[in-house]
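Holo prediction. Input below; ligand is adenosine monophosphate.
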Amino acid sequence: METENLQIVKDSIRVIPDFPKPGIMFKDITTLLNNKEAFKILISHLTKRYKSYNLDYIAGIDARGFIFGAALASHLGVGFVPIRKKGKLPYTTVSEKYSLEYGFDEVEVHIDAFKKEDGTKANVLLIDDLLATGGTSAAASRLIERVGANCVESCFIIELTFLEGAKKLNVPVYSVIKE
Ligand code: AMP
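Structure of the complex:
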């Protein structure tokens, strides 16, 4: 992305200190979404990047990954699949647990979400707003593989590089903003 456009996207993200708990610098992307210039620049940039990837689906992580993923899927003319927190999907699911600071969480996907009519493996791009420790997206990429699809890349709007989350993912990682 051109430096000037990247700056517009960066400047549109609001930082809220100590949310949801002391010490966390929360990246609030609602101010990117309601900035029509920044949102358009971002989705145009991702459309340009991924149009040659031969994707079949975009998988977005609950919940902010849905917003970017659905917009991008529509621009690319591919399907969108939600990867949800446990207990939200109505049909048969496959689930993956991942560790949090205290305890664990779980993400799920519908077992038939990445079907292709010709029976070949679907190419899937995983997307979320932010890569922190990588636990959530590593679990999500395992899910994609477990239901028989090919996770070609993980895409994030922001990557907190000091947490080294990219090391947890065994797929290529692309982040628009690296901090
Ligand atoms: P992780 O599994 O540690 O990579 O955490 C990633 C998930 O937590 C993403 O879905 C983010 O939306 C959220 N998250 C973690 N840290 C932050 C932060 N500093 N600001 C906003 N969202 C965050």
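The longest helix spans residues 36-50. That is the main takeaway for now.
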